[in-house]
Write a structure and sequence with these properties.
Layout lengths: L5 E6 L9 H15 L8 E6 L12 E5 L13 H22 L4 E4 L5 E2 L3 H7 L5 E3 L3 E4 L4 E5 L3 H4 L4 E4 L15 H8 L5 H5 L2 E2 L5 E4 L12 H8 L3 H9 L1 E3 L10
Parallel strand pairs: 1-2, 1-4, 2-3, 6-10, 7-11
Antiparallel strand pairs: 4-9, 5-11, 6-9, 7-8, 8-12
């Protein structure tokens, strides 16, 4: 069972596969501020990164675990090969990070450009033995003055959306053992299975902000302006796209931004 603590785990891509690493570092610094803006007990943060990766300034409570993986550029074309490479890379970085950190409470995987609600640590502390929660409602934000509310289905779009009790993850003691690769790839590499696999409950409040249009993620999601323009010739879709927009200034404090 859990001890009421919360560990955020961030898998960091190899800088050699990123066009503008300085921009990534700026985004990661914003994410780290968000993670530590919790209203409840102070969380831990563990980062799985390649040896020698330049990171933003780190505070107490951040553990960096070097995952010495062979560098393999992602296949440029969308498709099964690219997706499989993403699952392996992300899964192994998380497996190394979590094997070293040995969390005793709940774990939340966070993409390094996303933000999280300041209410998460208190939620975990109040129900330490719960299997976990999924973020059903959340926001999309492209860095501008507006954010889009996603009232349901947020966890289908964004990986920063699941809190799971650590013992359920079956974190392998030796992430490099080939016998563990399939579990690592299918479970730690993708968040898609967690909801059904672990019996998670909906969080009950907007739990995260999915940062889009930054160029740092691999999803290809576009910003709000382009989405509204695309919908301009379809009145029903236009109303739907505009209707979910909210002022970022009214939201940001709840996510430590």
């Amino acid at each position: 069972m859990g001890d009421g603590s919360l560990t955020f785990a961030i898998p960091v891509r190899d800088p050699r596969g990123v066009e503008d690493w300085d921009a990534v570092k700026e985004l990661m610094a914003i994410t780290l501020r968000s993670l530590f803006a919790q209203q409840g007990p102070r969380p831990r943060v563990v980062i799985g990164a390649s040896p020698g990766t330049a990171l933003p300034p780190l505070t107490d409570g951040v553990q960096v675990v070097e995952a010495d993986l062979p560098y393999r550029p992602l296949p440029p074309e969308q498709g099964p090969q690219r997706w499989d490479a993403i699952l392996v890379d992300k899964g192994l970085r998380l497996a190394h990070a979590l094997a070293a950190a040995r969390p005793q409470g709940h774990v939340m995987v966070v993409d390094y450009d996303d933000l999280v609600s300041s209410r998460l640590a208190a939620t975990v502390a109040a129900s330490p033995d719960a299997p976990g929660w999924f973020v059903d409602a959340g926001y999309q934000w492209d860095g501008g003055p507006l954010a889009a509310l996603l009232p349901t289905g947020f966890n289908d779009l964004c990986g920063t959306s699941l809190l799971v009790r650590a013992d359920l993850l079956r974190i392998p003691a030796d992430p490099d053992d080939p016998a563990n690769l399939e579990w690592i790839k299918q479970t730690l590499g993708s968040h898609k299975r967690w909801h059904g696999l672990f019996g998670l409950e909906p969080l009950g409040f907007p739990g995260a902000v999915y940062r889009i249009g930054s160029g740092a993620n691999v999803s290809g999601a576009v910003g709000h302006g382009r989405r509204v323009l695309r919908a301009a010739r379809r009145p029903a879709r236009f109303v739907r796209e505009v209707g979910v927009l909210r002022p970022w200034a009214a939201i940001r404090r709840g996510f430590g931004a």
